[in-house]
Amino acid sequence: MTLAICCRGLCKRYDGKVNAVNGLDLEVQVGECFGLLGPNGAGKTTIIEILEGLLEPTQGEVEILGRRWGQDDLELREWLGISLQETRLPEKLTVREVLALFRSFYQKGRDPKEVIRQVELSEKESTWVNKLSGGQRQRLAVACALVGSPKVLFLDEPTTGLDPQSRRQLWDLIREFKQQGGTILLTTHYMDEAERLCDRVAIVDRGKVIAIGSPAAMIATLGGEHVVEFGLDVTIGQTLKAGRLAELASVTSVRSEADGFSLHVQEPHLAIPALISYLHEMGVSLARLTTRHASLEDVFVKLTGRHLREE
Amino acid sequence: MKNNPLWELTLCRFREFAREPEVIFWVFGFPVLLAVGLGIAFRDRPPEKIFVAVAAHPQAPSVVERLKRVQTLSAEIQDPQRAASSLRLGKVALVVVPGNSYEYRYDPTRPDSLLARSIVDAALQNAAGRKNPVNTVEKAITEPGARYIDFLIPGLLGMNLMGGGMWGIGFVIVDMRIKKLLKRMIATPMRKADFMLAMIMSRLTFMVAEVVLLLLVGRFVFGMIIQGSVASIVTVAFFGSMCFTGMGLLVASRAQKIETVSGLMNLVMLPMYVVSGVFFSSERFPKVFQPFIQALPLTALNDALRSVILEGARLSTQVPHLATLILWGTLSFLLALRWFRWN
């Protein structure tokens, strides 16, 4: 079966600068929702724009649905729906006019009215773009990508800067597209977005994929699906040894943070009593204690030693 | 027509244009205001009277009486001292001192004084019985076609076609590039040729409106007589408009900022505003510069427009000017397409 997206040995160097993309291999199946997750400046936009045929790679090969850029461009353009990280659509055109314009570029496509209904902009059909809210504009941008009835949807940070409700509306759109058999490649620096939407995720850092797999499988590699974080009174915490903490029941790894410790734990109901009695033994008291499910953020931290939102 | 990309792109250009009131003003309102303003400032007025003083003397009243019969003169009796100071201050052009012979006091370096001298002398000599050996007939020539406003309107038209082509294309394209709209569009199967053609088609439509509007103002506000046919005027305007559309495209082909493209456009347009005969004839510049000035596209366009509008020249006589426009336009288009940056 043909892959939706396949690239090998992808490199992109901007003149004089470091490698924005450094030897990237990716395979995305048809019908999959695939996420590129990474901090700002990791090279996500460069990667997605190379795959979209908008940037030339310095090295490497790209195949989209078995076709190559430079040979089958027109056909590929008919098949792809794209939303760039930041496009300001014509301010003084109405929603309907913008969609009619984009629809006209495609041989086959959908009825603009129907797409407007799908992205829930029917009430704003005759409103100028400059009167739309951020979430509405972003839905219009996705509508422009959907109106050509694409096989593959490329979305570059579709929900960045949106309020929670607008984000959820966009997630529904993406899920709907996937249910109808479409393939999606999206970039994001929100781990929760990647976890909820994507079948598989590639974590990108400094132009390289440092981990790839389903969100659940990646979290499982942490050894514990729960995270226990605690902080201590004053500076007595210095005397706690990370090595000793790791020996506590059910703890799989320990990380010392600026203001305390973070433990990966398989079973919190075993680990927490053990921790409390150890602290009691040491004569220190807790300032705070929280537990939560492990996330892709923890995967990123484990792999790079940095948080996603740092830098 | 529905769902045709060329049609939709052109339609969107129209809509965006029509929804920008300030753009409409600069394209249509401003040139008309300029024409009306300059037309009023330089309208034809009756010639101003020349003031003459007659020094106080028993004969002075009769001299004044004779001079008053000449329409262009205004004569007044003044005592000699005041007359001298009036002359010095430029209040009068000439002082006549009556007596056995008339004495004319004036500054020969002042043109109005020289004129006053010859008019006054002729009037006084004729009154004293001089007979002219030859009969002369006078005919006043102030026909429409030779006035400043007649010169101005074709110049404004040329200027407007230049500004419209450069701003209307250059500014819009750079704006779309900044907004990543160009990049978004080439991420669709849109044909680049359709995009360019839509730009040109919308520009040409506005061009016809601009030409017709200015000519109507010239005709009905200033009574300008349009000698050439509308078809030949529009043909010249078409070549001019295409030429500046190409130059606008060239200027905008790589610019990433509005400031860059504005600077480039002013660099291209300002010299032509001055030397290409918009407000005054380009012939006024020294001969050494003429080959350069004549080679400029706006000079060619203005000259061709004036010939066609004011003299009713046939298009075939304007081939050199049209060739200049075609050359500039083609060169600009080719370079622009070669350098054009979509993202």
Give the percentage of residues in beta strands of chain B. Answer: 5-15%
Q: Low-confidence parts of chain A lasting 5 or more residues at pLDDT below 50? A: none
Largest interface: A-B, 28 and 23 residues
State which percent range the strand residues of chain A make up.
25-35%
- From the spread of the alpha carbons, the general shape of chain A counts as elongated
Give the assembly state of these chains: heterodimer
Radius of gyration of chain A from CA coordinates = 23 Å
CATH architecture of the largest domain in chain A: 3-Layer(aba) Sandwich
CATH homology-level superfamily of the largest domain in chain A: P-loop containing nucleotide triphosphate hydrolases
Measured as a percent range, the helix fraction of chain B is 55-70%
Low-confidence stretches of chain B: none
- Helix tally of chain B? 13
Number of strands of chain A: 13
CATH class membership of the largest domain in chain A:
Alpha Beta
Ordered list of secondary-structure elements with their pairings:
The complex is a heterodimer of chains A (311) and B (343).
Chain A (H helix, E strand, L loop, with lengths): L4 E9 L5 E10 L4 E5 L6 H8 L7 E6 L8 H7 E4 L11 H10 L7 H7 L15 H13 L5 E5 L7 H16 L3 E6 L2 H7 L2 E6 L2 E6 L1 H6 L5 E7 L9 H5 L4 E7 L2 E6 L2 H15 L3 E8 L2 H9 L7
Chain B lengths: L4 H14 L2 H21 L8 E6 L4 H9 L4 E6 L1 H9 L5 E4 L5 E3 L5 H17 L20 H31 L2 H6 L5 H31 L7 H22 L6 H18 L14 H5 L2 H15 L7 H21 L4
Parallel strand pairs in B: 1-2, 1-3
Antiparallel strand pairs in B: 3-4
Helix pairs in contact in B: 1-8, 2-6, 2-8, 6-8, 6-9, 6-10, 6-12, 8-9, 9-12, 9-13, 12-13
